[in-house]
Design a protein that fits this description.
- It is a single chain.
- The chain is α/β, with parallel strands linked by helices.
- It has a single domain, classed as Ribokinase (UDP-N-acetylmuramoyl-L-alanine:D-glutamate ligase), CATH 3.40.1190.
- Helix content is 31%, strand content 17%.
- A hairpin with a 2-residue loop joins strand 7 and strand 8.
- The structure holds adenosine-5'-diphosphate and magnesium ion (MG).
Length: 238
């Protein structure tokens, strides 16, 4: 796994190797639009905020936390971690992913220290105890700097400073949607970190998410930036 990450240009030096520990692993059962994820947590619930050192933050410009609900030991420390990171000039983002316990606790307190919040529509509705995505966005848009909500084949909606934009999904032949949300996050954050407009960031996100669905697995369908830019012109108009 380290080798695969290195091949993709990821700096693996900060990866913590715990003797006797095992890496988290998910088996994703996908059929049509339905998907069930079975996760062996391994070390996922053991990472703590203290293990994210100032030295590591100093070398970074953005901090993204995903799978909030699986990261049990990290949860109590995230608010302080995001504060620390922002104090050092980083921006922060959060993709909670689904809560297997369906209790949806602890996220609201993080919104004021989160620059970009990236739920999907089921997650944002669960977090706001509502059943309509528009209402859920209204409830949270004022509480977080930038909000981007994934809607699967429905595309996505983003909100910031009273502005709201909506982008349709690419029409692609879907192989499976594994990793679509994470690829969406990566695209959106690229635009965000390069000070693109809200709409352009959302378009890149939708392209990265959409292209990842054309190929089995989460990483093999990832585009280069040049490919993504070409596809951005092919998004259907609303
Ligand atoms: N069936 C699909 N057709 C086209 N694009 C899709 C499809 N499913 C996902 N995507 C793209 O990937 C993005 C993220 O996928 P989604 O399934 O909403 O996220 P998550 O995996 O977090 O639930 C969507 O906003 C969309 O752009
Ligand atoms: Mg997701």
């Amino acid at each position: 796994m380290l080798e695969a990450m290195q091949k993709a240009g990821i700096d693996t030096r900060p990866v913590i190797i715990v003797p006797g520990g095992s890496t988290g692993l998910s088996v994703i059962l996908a059929k049509g639009n339905d998907r069930a994820i079975l996760t062996h947590p391994g070390l996922i619930p053991t990472l703590t905020a203290e293990e994210i050192t100032d030295d590591l933050l100093n070398r970074s410009r953005h901090l993204h936390v995903a799978s909030y609900f699986l990261q049990k030991a990290l949860q109590p420390g995230i608010r302080h971690l995001f504060d620390r990171a922002r104090g050092m000039g980083l921006t922060t983002s959060l993709d909670t992913n689904y809560d297997p316990s369906e209790e949806w606790q602890g996220v609201h307190e993080l919104l004021s220290v989160t620059n970009v919040f990236l739920p999907n529509e089921v997650e944002i509705c669960s977090l706001t105890a509502g059943d309509h995505v528009e209402q859920a966005i209204q409830k949270l848009a004022d509480r977080v700097e930038t909000l981007a909500v994934k809607q699967g084949a429905g595309g996505a909606i983003a909100a910031r400073d009273g502005e709201q934009v909506r982008v349709k999904a690419l029409s692609v032949r879907v192989q499976d949607t594994v990793g679509a949300g994470d690829n969406f996050d990566a695209g959106f954050l690229y635009g965000y970190l390069h000070h693109w407009s809200l709409e352009e960031s959302l378009r890149l996100a939708v392209v990265c998410g959409g292209l990842s669905t054309r190929v089995a697995g989460g990483t093999d369908g990832q585009p280069t930036l040049a490919e993504a830019r070409t596809w951005m012109k092919r998004i259907p108009e609303i």
